[in-house]
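Appendix B, example 12.
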Amino acid sequence: MKKIVISIILLGTILFVASSFNNIKATSPTPTKTPTPTPTINPLCVCNTQNTCTSQCRFDKYTGVTGITYPALTKCTVTSPAGLYPTPATAAQKTDWCHRPNRTKGDATGEESVIMTDYFYYVQALYGHKIPASINVDFNGDGIVNAIDRLIIVRRLTTGL
């Protein structure tokens, strides 16, 4: 009888100690995420009369990726498919396209993030449906919505790069 009582007491003590260890939380330091700084827009970065972004505009490009090409001067208008927009983009909207730091990485809406909405607009444009003039799905800046732009948006959505 004494062996059973001692065993139960010991087992209860072990269970109590074990449950106490479960309530202890590790206090390892949590890394602090450094926020991405908002780029300062150069006032000389505008869409000029030739419908190209001036050389002062920032234009992030994928480098060394097969199938993705970029023009020497980024265009701030989309010529193909024709009739993409129900109303022509305003000068302010075109200049906004030049300001978007993540546009080449698949950001159609200019919200500095890439989500399925951006891909939705790309598909709409590709199949001849009208999209709002504030949206730019020409991710490589060549003035044409095509498979090269698809490579950029799909890469961004699937890999985050």
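Residues 4-26 have pLDDT under 50 and may be disordered. Helices lie at 2-22, 91-99, 116-126, 147-159.
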